[in-house]
Amino acid sequence: MGNTTLKKIGVLTSGGDAPGMNAAIRAVVRTAHYYKIECVGIRGGYTGLIEGNFTKMGPRSVSNIINLGGTILRSARSAEFRTPEGRKKAYEQCVAHNIDALVCIGGDGTFTGALKFSEEFGIKVLGVPGTIDNDIFGTDFTIGYDTALNTAIDAIDKIRDTATSHSRVFFVEVMGRDAGFIALNSGIATGALDILIPEQKDSLEQMFETFEKAQKRGKTSSIVIVAEGEQLASTYDLAKKTKEKFPDYDIRVSILGHIQRGGAPSCADRVLASRLGFGAVIGLMKGLTNVMAGIRSNDLVFTPIEDAITKHNEINQDLLQISEVLAM
Amino acid sequence: MGNTTLKKIGVLTSGGDAPGMNAAIRAVVRTAHYYKIECVGIRGGYTGLIEGNFTKMGPRSVSNIINLGGTILRSARSAEFRTPEGRKKAYEQCVAHNIDALVCIGGDGTFTGALKFSEEFGIKVLGVPGTIDNDIFGTDFTIGYDTALNTAIDAIDKIRDTATSHSRVFFVEVMGRDAGFIALNSGIATGALDILIPEQKDSLEQMFETFEKAQKRGKTSSIVIVAEGEQLASTYDLAKKTKEKFPDYDIRVSILGHIQRGGAPSCADRVLASRLGFGAVIGLMKGLTNVMAGIRSNDLVFTPIEDAITKHNEINQDLLQISEVLAM
Amino acid sequence: MGNTTLKKIGVLTSGGDAPGMNAAIRAVVRTAHYYKIECVGIRGGYTGLIEGNFTKMGPRSVSNIINLGGTILRSARSAEFRTPEGRKKAYEQCVAHNIDALVCIGGDGTFTGALKFSEEFGIKVLGVPGTIDNDIFGTDFTIGYDTALNTAIDAIDKIRDTATSHSRVFFVEVMGRDAGFIALNSGIATGALDILIPEQKDSLEQMFETFEKAQKRGKTSSIVIVAEGEQLASTYDLAKKTKEKFPDYDIRVSILGHIQRGGAPSCADRVLASRLGFGAVIGLMKGLTNVMAGIRSNDLVFTPIEDAITKHNEINQDLLQISEVLAM
Amino acid sequence: MGNTTLKKIGVLTSGGDAPGMNAAIRAVVRTAHYYKIECVGIRGGYTGLIEGNFTKMGPRSVSNIINLGGTILRSARSAEFRTPEGRKKAYEQCVAHNIDALVCIGGDGTFTGALKFSEEFGIKVLGVPGTIDNDIFGTDFTIGYDTALNTAIDAIDKIRDTATSHSRVFFVEVMGRDAGFIALNSGIATGALDILIPEQKDSLEQMFETFEKAQKRGKTSSIVIVAEGEQLASTYDLAKKTKEKFPDYDIRVSILGHIQRGGAPSCADRVLASRLGFGAVIGLMKGLTNVMAGIRSNDLVFTPIEDAITKHNEINQDLLQISEVLAM
C-alpha cells in the first residue's frame, strides 16, 4: 500500500470513555508504525490538542493495554474547542508539530468537533466510534457497547438473585441518554418484565397492565429495565408511581451508573477496536478525511462524519417484539 | 456420633439474603441426611414458619445450588413473627410437623426472633450467620461478606477506569448500615483516597484536608468509599459539600446498591457456609440450643445467640492506619 | 400470524453443549406458548428422542435459566440415531406423542441427523446453530461462540500475567477442531504473537521467524494461540520443537479445554439465542422445514440445512492481516 | 515510631508469581515512603539482585497496580543465587547501593535463599509469603491463595455445566505440588465427588467405591479434584484406570494450569498483601530480621523464617470430613 504523503498523525480520545478505547489506540499506533508513519498521542482529548499535550508513541508505548478499560490518553469534554479561538490554537499546535491528520476516538460530540475543525483548517480527520451507547450511524457496533452490555447483565443477574429471594420488584436504570440499545438488549438478556426506552412511547397504563398480567401468571418477582433517557418519567418516579398503584409490592431502585463505562473490554470490543484502529490509519493513507471507520456486516466501511452524527441506527423491531413474547 | 433425640429439623433463611445461603442450606440438608435426621425447608423465612410453608428436603433437592446466589428457600422480614400471636402460630406449625429444632440462617434480626421463639416455646434453635455486613459477633466472617467485598471491588475497579480517564472524584457508597467492614476493606483493596465508616468519627475538614494533600501530590482522580451507615452526611450531601469547597472538581456519585447482595458466592463463602451448615446440625445433635455456629481462627465454635446479637466485632485498628498510610 | 396446522413441537439439544442453549430453549418454549403451540422438551438429544424421554414444557419450566450455561435438556451424541432403526424408533415416538415438528439446537452433526430424519419420515425440522466453534454456514454467529471467546480471553489474560512476570513463552490451545474462529479472535484480542489455525498453512520456519523478530524488538514474553485442529503439529509438539530451536526460552503449554464450553452466556449470546429460538418457532409456523434459523447482518434468515452443513464461513482475511500488523 | 537506623530497603518478588504480589510491593513502597525510608525495586528476583537491576521507587511508581495480577518487578528462579559466588555478588550490590535490608516476597524457595543470604552477609531480610499454594507456616493465608481458589472454582463451575449437560465424569487437576489446600477447598466449594490430595493416603479402591455409591444414588455426572502433587497416580492415569474399571463412563480430564496464577487479586488477597507489605516495613523498622510477616487470627505476627520453611500448616480434618459428608 503506497503512502507518499502521510508523515505524522495524532490520536486522541474524547467524550465519555468506553472499554476498548485502549485497544483502538494500540491499533492506531502499531498500524502507523507498521506503515512507517509517525504517531503522537494527544492527552486529554481536545483540551490536550489545544494545549499541545502530546507524547510520541511507538509500538512499546501501547504494550499490555489491550485488556485495560478506560483510556491511557485520558479524555475530557472541552468547552474551549467549541470556540473558534480554541480550534485556532489547536490548529497551530498541529502545524507546530507537523501533524497531518487526526484519529479521533469518541462519540458524536467528538465527531462534531472533528468535522468543524477539519472544515475550518483542512487538517484531515478520521473518526473511530467509541461509546458504550451504540448510537452512532455507520457501524453495526460502537467500541465499548458489547462490554457495557455484559457489565449490565452481570449486575442485573446479581440483582435478580436478591429480587427472587425476596419477591421484589426492581427498577434498574442502565445508561443510554438518547438511545435504548443497552436497555433493550440487557433487558432481553435478563428476562426483564418490561423495558422502557426513549425510542418508544411508553405509558404507565401499559406498564401497570404488564405487572398485572405477570401477577396473574404467578410471577412473584420482576425486573424492569429503564434507559437513562426514558421520557415517561425518571426511574425513581416510575418506582414511586408503581408503589402508589400496587402498595403491596416491595419495590427497589438500582441505578447501575458508571460501572457500565469501565472494566476489561470483551473479546468482541477488543477485536472491533483493533479493526477500527487499523482501518482508521488505512483510511488516512488512502487520503480519506471527514469520515468515520465502521464495521457493517463484518466489513470495514467509511461513512461521512456528517452522516454518522445526523443519521441514526434504528432499534430493531424484532427485538421489541421478542422482549414482549419472551417476558412471562 | 450418637443422635438419639433429634428426629426432624427445619431450616430457613431470613432477613437480607447473602451469597452462600444456598451453600449453607445444602450443608444442613445433606448433613442431616447423613446422620439420618429428617429435614424440611421452610419457605419465606418466619412468614413461612407461621404459615406452614414447608417442603421436605433430601440430598437431591440441594443439587447444583452451591454456586447460586440468593436463597432457594426465599427470605422475608416478618412483622407477624415479632408478635406473640405470630410466634404461637409458628410453634403450632412446628408441633404439627414434629419439628424438633430449627436452623436459622440470617443476621441479627433473624437471631433476635429465633432467641425469643426458643425461650417462649422451647423449640431448639441454632443460628448460622448469613449477612454481607459481617456485623455478627462470634464468627470471624459471616456468610456472604467475602463475596460482597469481591463484588464491591470489581465495581470500584470499573469506576476507577473511568475516574482515571476523566480525572474525576467519585463518591462510592457501599453497603453496611451499622458496620464499616465492607467500606474499610473494599476501600483498602481499591486504594481509596478516603474511607468513611460509622465506627469512626469523621469530619468534613479532615476529608477536605485529605483532598488537598492528594492534590498537592499530583493525584488527579480519587475515589472516596462511604459506608451506607456513615453518620457525617449522606453520600450525595458529601459530594455536594465537596463540590462547594472544590468547585473545579468533576465529582460523581455511585451507589453500588443491591448488586452487592447477589452473585455466585466466592470460594471462601462456599466453604464457610458448608462448614457452618454442617456445624449447625452437629451442634443440634450435641443438644445445643440458642447458640450460633461460627468459625474463629479456623475452628468451629458456638456462641450464645444472646452474645452474637449484643456484642460486636471491632474494626481492626491496624486496617484504619494502613488505609491512611497506603492512600497517596 | 396465523398458525392453523402446527399443534405440538419438540425441542432438543444435541452434540457439544454451548452457553446460550438454555436461552434458546426458553425462547422456543415461550414463543410456542405465546402462539398456543404445545411444546415438549426432549431430554438427552436424539437418544431421548428414540427413547421417548419427553417432558411437557410451559413458560414456568424455563424460568431463571436464561443465564445458565449448559443445557437443562442435556445433550448427547447418539450412535443409534445414525442407524435407520434408530431413526425409525424416533419417528414412532413422534407419532405416539403427536409431535409435528422438531427444533434441533446444535452443530453440524445435529443438523445432519435432523436432515436425514426429516427426509425419511417427513417430520418437520428446524435447526438452531448452537456450538462454540462458529463453524456453521447461514448465520454470522453461532450460539455460544461469543461466550467462549470471552472465557478464552479471560483465561489468556491470566496466563499473560504470569508469562510477563516470568518472561515466558506460552502455547495456549483453544477449542476449534475444524475452525480457527476462536483462535483467531482470541489471539487478536490478547495480542498473541502468533496464531495457528487449520484454515491457514503454517510452517515452523515462519513461526520461528516471528519469534526471532519479536526477540529483536525486545519482547521478553509471548503467547502463541493454537487452534485444537491445527494441522502443523500438536500444541505439545509445537512447544517441544520451539524449545529445540530456542533452548533458552522458558516455554509452557496450556490447554484451555472444557472451560470454554461452560459459564453464564454473554449478553450477545443470550440475545442471539432468544432471537433464534423465537425465529425457529416462527419459521415452523410459516411451514418451513429443513432449514436453519440464523442472523445475518442483524436480520433473521433461514438457510437450507443442506447448505448450513456443507458450506463454510470464510475466515476474514482482514483479521489475518490485522493479527500480523498489531502483534509486535 | 522511631526509625533511626533503616535508611534504604530493597524489595523483590521471587519464585512462582501470585496475584496480590503487586499489592504487596505497593504497600512496601508506600509504607517506606511514609516513614521516610528509601526504597528500591529489584527486578527479576535474586537474579536482579546479583546483577544490580535496581529501580528507585516512590509512591507514584506503584499507582494503579493494586488490582493487577503478576508482579511489576517480575520474578525468576535464580540458580546462581544458590551458589556462594552468586550470593557474594548480591551482597556487593547491596553494599554498592547502600541497601540495609530486603523485603523478599515469595514462597519457601525464596525464603531459603533469603535466610542463607542473611546469615552469610548480615543483610537484614524480612519475608512476605506470596504463593498460591498456601503452604507456608506462620500465616493463616498466603498472598494469592484466595484468588487462586476463586479462579479454580470459576473454572470448575464452567466444567460442571458441560459435565452435567453430558453426564460426564471430569478429573480436574488444580495446582498444589506439595499441598492440597487448593484442591480440598475448591473441591468442597464445587461439590466435588472426590478430592485427592498429597496429605492423604488415597487408593483406587476407595475412589471406585465412591463412584459406585454415587451411581447408586442416581448421580449422573461427577467431578473429581486432583491436586498436582497427588501421589497415587497422575491425573491422566487416574482417568485411564477409572475408564478401565467403568467402561461406560464418559470421562474427561482438565488440567487448569497456569490460569490459577494470574488475574486481578481478590479483595481478601489485596487486603492481606497490603497488611503484610506494611507489616514487613514495620518489622524491619523494629530491627527484626530473618522473620516472615504473617497474619494469624487477624493479627500481624512475625515467625522465624527457619520455622516458616520447615514447619507446615496442617490440613483441617473437619474439612476432610465435610467433603465426604456433603458430596452426594
Automatic annotation (TrEMBL), chains A, B, C, D:
EC number: 2.7.1.11
Enzyme class: transferase
UniProt function note: Catalyzes the phosphorylation of D-fructose 6-phosphate to fructose 1,6-bisphosphate by ATP, the first committing step of glycolysis.
Binding site for substrate: T131, I132, D133, R168, M175, G176, R177, E228, R252, H258, I259, Q260, R261
Name of the gene: pfkA
Domain Phosphofructokinase, first and last residues per copy: 8-281
Name of protein: ATP-dependent 6-phosphofructokinase
Top-level taxon of the source organism: Bacteria
Entry binding sites for ADP: R26, A27, V28, V29, R30, R160, R217, K219, T220, S221
Family annotation (Pfam families): PFK
Cofactor(s) essential for the protein: Mg(2+)
Residues bound to Mg(2+): D108
Keyword Nucleus belongs to the record: no
Regulation: Allosterically activated by ADP and other diphosphonucleosides, and allosterically inhibited by phosphoenolpyruvate.
InterPro entries for this protein: ATP_PFK (IPR022953), ATP_PFK_prok-type (IPR012003), PFKA_ATP_prok (IPR012828), Phosphofructokinase_CS (IPR015912), Phosphofructokinase_dom (IPR000023), PKF_sf (IPR035966)
Known pathway: Carbohydrate degradation; glycolysis; D-glyceraldehyde 3-phosphate and glycerone phosphate from D-glucose: step 3/4
Catalytic residues in the record: D133 (proton acceptor)
Assembly: Homotetramer.
Keywords: Allosteric enzyme, ATP-binding, Cytoplasm, Glycolysis, Kinase, Magnesium, Metal-binding, Nucleotide-binding, Transferase
Family, as annotated: Belongs to the phosphofructokinase type A (PFKA) family. ATP-dependent PFK group I subfamily. Prokaryotic clade 'B1' sub-subfamily.
Subcellular location, principal: cytoplasm
